[in-house]
Prior knowledge:
With 366 residues, this protein is α/β, with parallel strands linked by helices.
Amino acid sequence: MYAMRYAVIIAGGSGTRLWPMSRRQRPKQLLPLIGGRSLLQAAFARLGSVVPAAHRLVCAAESDRRKILELLGLGDEQFLGEPVGRDTLAAVTLSAAVVCRRDPQATLGVFTADHVIEPADTFRSVVEMGYQAVERRPEALLTFGITPTHPATGYGYLELGNVAVEGTREVRRFKEKPNLATARRYLAGGPGRYLWNSGMFIWKARTLLSCVRKYAPEVYAGIDRIVAEWDGERRLPALRERYPGLKKISVDYGVMEPASADPEVPVLALPMELHWRDIGSWTSYAEACARDAAGNASPSGKSLLVDCRGVLSASSDPRHLIAAVGCEDLIIVHTENATLVCPKGRAQEVKELQARILSEQGEEYL
Length: 366
């Protein structure tokens, strides 16, 4: 079974909400954010012995190829370069098509490069169960579910049904990013009925491709034409010509939602009882860091926080000192040519801030 196991880590996000540390030339998944390691390094190592190292791939921006190959020590064929980002359906379909071309019997796990997941041994145990479940039910799509802790509107939710194989639950409905009232109702329903979708999946590569062909035929056709040129000189030209024209849609909307409503496609959920955090903003990053008694986090650089509460202080320059007095729930991030100061409650606006930076200050700050 292990010989047919593959994994792809999707690492194409730009990390715009983690500006100014996350930049176009150095996205968040490559930053040493957690214990001196990047999120991508942690994601790669976290798989342990569940998937052979030679069967692990990374799908990310082509412009990051050299950095990622060196960072992880990968062979060139373990990197799938996107000429432009087209969201996760295109990335996942490309990965599945390339893997299926190498091994038509492949079981493919899809993992993310922007999560903190602990403990790692628990994660590996659950992922092992997931591979075994799909190996027993090759027609199924499997996702990992997380117990909700608050009524989040930025995550997908899984409505659970009956118990299936290997500790999995059938998914009655996959609901991507509900409104606040619906999210509150899901939270009140409890984890026995509703889970967050973690953004991690396992399926047979050929099963996923069959679903894409059914629910998103244009994306399937575009990827099929690209992969038909994969082993020849036309690989890169085909990618550059066809990939930018693919529909920009997530695998959640493009496959999981319609599959959960399709009686012909079993969708399974495997609960993950562990610490899981999506590092999508400075506030979520602060929550993943060690904090003092007043809730302050200083994960990098030097800081002196006097009478402060709930402050995140971070610097990419180990010689630079950030000093603050009497601040509360504030984000302070220093880099060589840009500094961000922002209330935690407005951290989501950092993404929009960059549009003004581009128009008023220029590309050098992005």
